[in-house]
Write a structure and sequence with these properties.
Strand content: under 5%
Shape: rod-shaped
Number of helices: 21
Strand order of the largest sheet: 1-2
Radius of gyration: 52 Å
Structural class: mainly alpha
Helix content: 55-70%
């Protein structure tokens, strides 16, 4: 329009008063106005060049940080531009931004990874793309509300669907593809956790076989997706996808039901807390889909109920044995009070082991475990109180209070042996009663004369030392005697050898034997006399010699007694072989032919 030749022609037309001149002037004015508008639009649209360049090169997770600045420039165009601030043009511009975001997300997503490659990477890309699109909608909505809050007549009341219809469709497509990836992880066991955990018990191999069958079934459903046009999978305008995905999703529902059934089948054989925890850990490791995770979480209630039953069982045993004075069986090496305390401690250890199993369920919500753990803490506190307050302080410490005022070692200053009175029905018959009165002491049984209260104290203290971590304090007078526990035990065993040898002789004698072997018995009693009077439990070094001499004397006497009884038995048997004939009151013994 500014060329000289064109201006010369226009002057000629003007001088000739041409009818074409007006039409040309109108067209020229329109071109000039359009040029001015284009220059103005270009000036404002150039502000979008930098953020759009970044958007073109960004990954989905980087896009949300670019969008606020980009949208700020669009808002500036809406408010400042003279020509590009119409709703149609701004809506078109926002729609182009949406399309570019979808394009960047599609470039990031690999369908090959989803079907046959790195499923976990594909899931991450899909999740990033989905979050990117959702963030784009949030940023737009936030900007729209800020413009509305500012007031004024010009607001962003654009058609939301025209801007975000394809974005919403793409988000749904990402959800569909994430569902496929979930299936890959859950049923085909793709990904880093591809190995099956070990399933114990008789049902273990059967569980593994069923899981392999589920894997094969899923592959058949996935082959239908694999056989479709993979280039159209991310195309939100493709309608065939909906048919393919609908068939796949129906197959996934069937596999979900099969998986829940195998979980029920596995838990049917669970009877203990440990088994339940191991089964929960195995299926939690396998659970990838939300529906299966929720079902595994419900099975946690079953395991917690097993734990509650074990707590109730321990409480009932305690109530039956302690509160209702039932029978408690514990080793003879434990004391009366400490034995019960150790038995209660065994209940505590038992439920403590169950609690350690429950603590392994880190993937279970604390709200599910809390009531059972509170019940456990209450029961443990009750058991601990019984050990400390009732058995230790109230019972045992009260009973041994007498030892606080005496020297415990003085209990060892007593003879090592004593006589036991004959019970009725033992020893010589009534015909020899008068003769036997003077020998009654010698025919009495022997017994170890160790102080029973001291033995009880040693036993209790030894057992209480096993519970020192409860805060049990062993009295000083008890600690004095405890180092001699093993030495005194050996001495008691030595003395008991003599007691058993001597009592065996007494038990082997009948009425006539006691008279016949009276002198020999007196000799043995002389050997024993030192143990009945002079030798004390506190005596050192001579006790072994005493035991050896007494046992030798008892052995000699017992051997003579057995020899006499064997000869007597032989004589009796020989007499039975002779023929006895009675002739008129006279007995003639004739040797048997």
């Amino acid at each position: 329009l500014e060329r000289p030749k064109l201006k010369k022609i226009l002057n000629i037309l003007k001088l000739s008063d041409s009818s074409y001149l007006k039409a040309f002037d109108d067209l020229a004015s329109s071109i000039n106005a359009g040029s001015i508008e284009a220059d103005d639009n270009l000036k404002f649209l150039k502000s979008l060049q930098e953020p759009c360049k970044k958007l073109e090169e960004a990954e989905p997770k980087e896009i949300p940080s670019i969008l606020p600045g980009l949208l700020f420039r669009v808002r500036m165009i809406w408010e400042r531009s003279k020509y590009y601030n119409t709703p149609e043009r701004i809506s078109s511009l926002l729609r182009k931004i949406s399309n570019e975001i979808i394009k960047r997300c599609k470039n990031q997503i690999s369908i090959k990874d989803m079907l046959d490659g790195d499923v976990e990477k594909c899931m991450k890309d899909l999740q990033d793309s989905k979050e990117c699109c959702e963030e784009w909608e949030k940023i737009y909505e936030k900007t729209r509300l800020l413009i509305a809050k500012k007031g004024g007549k010009r607001r962003w009341d654009f058609n939301y669907g025209s801007i975000f219809a394809q974005v919403d469709a793409f988000i749904q497509r990402c959800n569909d593809l994430l569902e496929i990836c979930d299936g890959q992880l859950q049923f085909a066991r793709k990904g880093s956790d591809s190995q099956l955990p070990q399933f114990g018990g008789s049902k273990g191999p059967e569980i593994v076989n069923i899981l392999e069958e589920i894997k094969l079934s899923f592959r058949k459903h996935l082959d239908k997706i694999r056989g479709s046009d993979q280039d159209k999978i991310l195309d939100v305008k493709s309608t065939k996808w909906h048919d393919d995905y609908s068939a796949f999703k129906n197959g996934m529902k069937d596999l979900d039901v099969m998986y829940l059934n195998i979980i029920n089948f596995a838990f049917d054989s669970v009877e203990t807390v440990q088994q339940g925890v191991e089964m929960l850990e195995a299926f939690d490791f396998l659970a990838k889909r939300a529906s299966i995770k929720n079902y595994v979480s419900k099975k946690a209630h079953f395991v917690i109920e097993l734990f509650n039953k074990e707590l109730d069982k321990a409480k009932n045993e305690y109530d039956q044995s302690i509160m209702k004075k039932g029978v408690i069986i514990f080793p003879i090496t434990h004391g009366k009070y400490s034995g019960i305390a150790i038995w209660i401690r065994s209940l505590m250890i038992r439920i403590e082991n169950f609690k350690k199993n429950i603590d392994l369920l880190t993937f279970v919500d604390d709200g599910i475990k809390r009531p059972a753990l509170e019940k456990y803490d209450s029961l443990q506190q009750r058991f601990r109180h019984h050990i400390m307050e009732e058995k230790y302080k109230s019972s045992w410490r009260t009973e041994v209070k007498e030892y606080e005022d005496i020297e415990v070692r003085s209990k060892l200053d007593r003879a090592i042996l004593c006589r036991v009175k004959l019970e009725e029905g033992h020893g010589p018959s009534s015909a020899l009663k008068t003769t036997q009165q003077s020998k009654k002491a010698r025919l009495s049984h022997l017994e170890s004369f160790f102080d029973r209260s001291l033995l009880k104290l040693i036993t209790e203290v030894s057992s209480w030392r096993k519970l020192l971590h409860f805060g049990i304090m062993i009295p000083n007078f008890a600690d004095e005697i405890l180092p001699q526990k093993e030495h005194l035990r050996i001495l008691r065993e030595y003395v008991m050898l003599v007691v058993r040898d001597y009592n065996k002789i007494i038990d082997s004698m009948d009425d006539s034997d006691s008279l016949l072997f009276d002198q020999h018995l007196q000799n043995t009693d002389k050997e024993l006399s030192a143990g009945l009077a002079r030798l004390k439990w506190s005596t050192k070094y001579v006790l072994e010699d005493f035991v050896r001499q007494c046992r030798a004397s008892c052995a000699d006497l017992y051997r003579m007694l057995q020899m006499y009884k064997n000869c007597l038995l032989y004589t009796s048997d020989a007499a039975d072989d002779l023929l006895c004939v009675d002739l008129g009151g006279r007995r003639i013994i004739k040797k048997k032919k």
